[in-house]
Amino acid sequence: MSSYKPTKGMKRRLNISILAITGAFALYAFANLYDASITNNVSYSAMANNTQFQSTTVTANRGTIYDANGQILAQSATVYNIIISPNELKGVDDEAILESGLTEKERQIQECATILTEELGTVDYDEIVEYFYNEDTSNRAWIKVASKVNKVVASSILTRADELELEYNLIYTEEDTTRYYPQGDMAASVIGFTNYDGDGIYGVEAYYNDYLAGVDGKTITATDANGNEMPYKNDKTYDAQDGSSVYLTIDSTLQYYVERELEKCVEENNVQNRACAIIMNCKTGAILAMATYPGYDLNDRNSIYSASDRATLAAITDEEEYNEKYAELREQQWKNKAITELYEPGSVFKVVTGSAALEEKAITLDSTFTCNGAIEVADKTINCWTRGAHGTQDFVTAMTNSCNPAFIQIGQRLGIELFCDYFEAFGFTETTGIGLPGESAGLYVSEEDMGIVELASCSFGQSNTVTPIQMITAYSAVINGGYLLQPYVVSKIVDTNGNVIKTTRRTVRRQVISEETSEMMRETLESVVNNNGGSNAYIKGYRIGGKSGTSQKLQKIKETGDENLYVGSYVGFAPADDPEIVMLCMVDEPKGTDANGSLVYYGSLVAVPVVSAVFSDALPYLGYYPEYTEEELAALDITVPSLEGEDLEVAIETIESLDLNYKTVGEGTTVVSQVPSSASSVPQNGTIILYTEENLDKQMTTVPDVVGYSVSEVNNLLTNAGLNFKAGDGASGQSGATSNSQSIVAGTEVAQGTVVEVSFVVKSEG
Predict the structure, then answer these.
(1) Quick one: CATH architecture of 56-247?
(2) Is the peptide bond before 620 cis (omega within 30 degrees of 0)?
(3) What's the mean pLDDT in 37-61?
(4) 685 with 754: CB under 8 angstroms?
């Protein structure tokens, strides 16, 4: 009879098999344990931490940007993200029917959607409801439904949720920050802005992003399988390190003056391609103001700022074409024209050619140059800017006349090699290093490619292209003793503890010309302003130096066929004997016309008025007050005394003692009222109207249109209308000057005796 019991051999084989399998499993387990604990410990630990812990970012506050006087230009504000948590409704009754016919869960979902829809205005009711029923989102611990909501709205949302007894974390908020610019469009092209993530992408915001951004912190907490926070003794918080604050050299008051006058310039001259201006401290390189107009609102940077650009967009019906044009115009308005765009400086560049030639002793102040209205260079005829001939003239006269043939001769005496050496020395072959993103370098004719024709055109500011910041930096070197400085817009950076961690100081790149040559150029450029009875830049009581320029946009003319494409510019400085501030204004493609319908494009007509108006306000603001010459004192306006209540005979004696005229209205013996009023100013030989009876109507007159007339013609027109004529600063003393603006609009009804101030200009490249 056979046995069914296992034999010893069978047991041994079974034991060996089990032992082998067990050993294999043990070896496998040990290998995995070794891999997890030794070989790949770091990665597995990270996976575990990602599962068991959650990290919440603590956003650092971005540093503030201040102007030179501590006025806030950019700052971060606390805002809130709005978050819903669908899994908070897991335990809410979904069966019992309320009086409204809804379950408690349904009520809370609908109330949540209603609150968010009404308060935010940017979310869809049905979309919010769907989050609670959708299989992919109904169990989620958080869903962000809105970002960067202000405190008022966020508080209202939470208050309403509490009043309606919604689950505690059904709607909650998360702190965030947003960038705010209190001054709106002021210095927009300098300040720049941040992107949605809070990183700077334009201007100072971009260039100094590492300082401004700070370092985000984080909080690490344990979570359960559903992502809910759990008590954990090792919770850790790493504090955020707020960004440092940046102090600019920009002075908001000067910036306001510049932007105000640029706006007037662009509107009055129908400027097609924007205008820009810079004020620099020529002793240090600090930028006191820098503006481009039209600019944009930093708080609404995606909207097109320019009215003409908006009109261009409105005329486009094709959606694709519209989007392309919109993107182009938006990018253009964000650019800082003063550092990114190139232009041919025209006659402003003559200060560089002249100072180089004086420094090399290629000419002297007494050297003479002949202008017959044009000059032959090789086989090319190059005309002077004016149709007439300037004849024989010395250097100062040639600069005052801005004579092209004279400066071609100066360039020839300097020679190609030296001209190119000085072109480089004055900084035109490299960027200035101003400390702003997007700065361009000029495009120029190299020494290898320059012939005598190219030298001729380059000598008076054509052919080579530069940026406005390059031009004003070189100009500063001409007048400050010859030192090429590095311009800068940031004076210091201060951390959150008040420690100054970075400062910017005067940086001399090299000395280009001598102090002696620089002094000669200052005197020459002051003569340009003062000669022939005063140029458009003349301001009574101040010593101003400067040079205007006009250039044709030759490349664009070739491309478009439009012959009337010009750039008008001016660079002025003050005080002329010891300059502190220098200002450049560049007006790109002015298309305005004068009273005769002629195109107005000369730098002396479109750019000089900007600089002159800014200087009139800026110099007193900076502590420079007028110091009049004897001639200026003799021609000063007279302050009108207070005569109301005076005996008529006494009032007349007072007026006559001031060499003023008078006219009486009424039969009384006491002055009841007067025009102009006391403390106003009238020109010498002006007339004061004295009213001697109560309730007498003022004698009225209509202000005539006096724009486009000579000084004598304006005087006759206003005097005949019973008005006082006051000549403003500018070229009123120069023959050939014509009026270009009046203080009271033509056609306005005013009282006789009212003072009308009229400004005058000459069409000149001086």
Answers:
(1) Alpha-Beta Complex (3.90)
(2) no
(3) 63
(4) no
